[in-house]
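Write out the bound-state structure for magnesium ion.
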Amino acid sequence: MKFFNMTTQIEKIDFNSIEKANKILCDGGIVAIPTETVYGLGAIATNPQAVMEIFRVKGRPSDNPLIAHVHKDYDICKLVHIRQDYVYDLIKAFTPGPLTLVFESKGVVCEQATCGGDTLAIRIPSHQGCQQLLKRVDAPIVAPSANLSKHTSPVTANHVYNDLNGKIELILDGGKCTGGIESTVLDVTGKTPRILRAGLVTKEMIESVVGRCEIALHKEGDKIKSPGVKYKHYQPNCKTALFEYGDLQGVLKAYDEEIKLGGKPFIMCSDEFISKLPNKNLLSLGNTPQQIACNLYDKLLEGEKKATLIIAISMKDEKGINMGIMNRLRKSCG
Ligand code: TXA
Ligand code: MG
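---
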């Protein structure tokens, strides 16, 4: 067993660092890697020891399965059964990109990664450096987000460093993630695709290709299909509060109360509210849903460093990307 006292290097993702990462991975180690959504903590999916090391380093519950990442020319039929014809249309429309598909597994990926389940989640990331690494390794790499379990997911190499310094050897730096929230997880084992985790590939986008798409509802007592959804998630290391869209009175009251307690509140909101919140500490998320998704974790992680309380404001609705944003806002700040 390794202990947590190694030196952690951050290296720009390029030919040399990819060679180094490939060697670490092939020797059974783990490496933090950039993707277009969030940074991942990768291991070769067929190596049980390496996969178990991911769970240990993150402090991840052992019943929460991992996503296998492959390059765009990888034949996923080596790993899973494709039972539904609509899957080919989804792959054509949305990959490489922020979409994870859950299939019936062929059992090639080790059971430590799938947590003994009979399904396997697969994703083909679009991040160029990540694609190059996946090509070099030419094997599936399982990778959860590269944060400590329950903490906010990292969208820069420095965010990864702050959580995993001393615990891993290498972080490949591929710049700030452009997507900003994790991939959409879609169950494609049945006749109708079913969203298990909302993300940047939206229900509307999937419907436009397949004609239909369900949202999995996780009610108390249900057999949970995507284990990750039952855990606490994405939480910054400070107090948080979430207010309804437009409840500026509530926001200002919480702000003033925190000041009275001697704290330092910050309001995290889209730019449309900025003019209505003069002289307040702000974490501004930008304007469009794309910008807000891209900035969300970055601002939560900036906020935890300087705020005692992050006050978040809900999106206007849950259409399109807003569904994924609201899902993350509820878990991180709700
Ligand atoms: O964008 C992403 O998906 C990032 C980057 C690194 O690719 N990865 C990521 O992994 O978010 P993680 O482990 O933090 O979240 C994976 C989610 C969890 O909610 C997990 O329960 C679900 O996917 N999942 C994984 N395998 C599954 C399976 N076989 N069936 C259902 N859900 C699965
Ligand atoms: Mg995660």
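---
The pocket of magnesium ion (ligand 2) is lined by residues 144-145, 153 (CB under 6 Å).
DSSP finds ten helices and 16 strands in the chain.
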